[in-house]
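Subject: Predicted fold for NAD(P)H dehydrogenase (Quinone), 199 residues

User T.R. writes:
Posting the sequence so we have a shared reference for the thread.
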Amino acid sequence: MHTLLVAANPDPRSLTHYVLGRLEAALQPGSVEIADLSEERFDPRFTQADRRAYHEGGNYPADVMAEHRRLERATDLVLVFPVYWWSMPALLKGWIDRVFVNGWAFEHSSASSLRPRLQHLTTHLLPIAGDDSGAYERHGYESALRTQIEHGIVDYCGSRRGSTAFIYESEQLSPETTLRGVDRAVRLISEAIHGRLAK
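User M.O. replies:
I've generated the C-alpha cells; pasting them so everyone works from the same file.
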C-alpha cells in the first residue's frame, strides 16, 4: 500500500501545505509520497505533444510518464487543494489534463467504447474552502465540485471513490474553527486509508 499526496498551492506557508504535513504524519508508518506541483514546477499547459499523445494513446512527454510511474506505485491518491472559483486550481487541473490521458488512465477510440484503466487506485479529495458549509449547501457548490471531480474524473477513469473531506471557513478570523476543520478532514482521509490497509 502506497499513498500519493498531490498538492497545488504556490505558498509553502499556506494552509494547504499545513494540511499536507498533518496528513503525511497521520498516515505514518505507511508508505507516503508527496507531489508538490508548484515546488516541482510541473508544467500544466496542454501542448501539441500532449494532444498527439492523447489521440495516439501513447508516446507521452517525459514529465507525464514520470507522473504515470508515481501513480502506478500508488494504491491511494489524495488531492489536497484550495477551492478556486468552485473548482480546483489551474495547476492541478492541468496536471489531470496532461496525466490522466487516453491510453493510460482510460482507453477510448472511435472504434471501441470507453475502457477505464485506474481500477487499482482509490482517489480521495481534500478541498480547502474559504466559505462556510451553509453557503456551499445553499448554492450547490459542494455538489457541483463533487460531480465535476468524483464523477467526471474519478469514475470516468475507473478509480474507486475514497473519502471527500472539505475544510470550510479557511479564510475566517477564527483559527480554532479552521483547526477543527483540519482535524476532521485529516482524520476522515487517514481513517479511510488506514481502513483499507487493515482489510
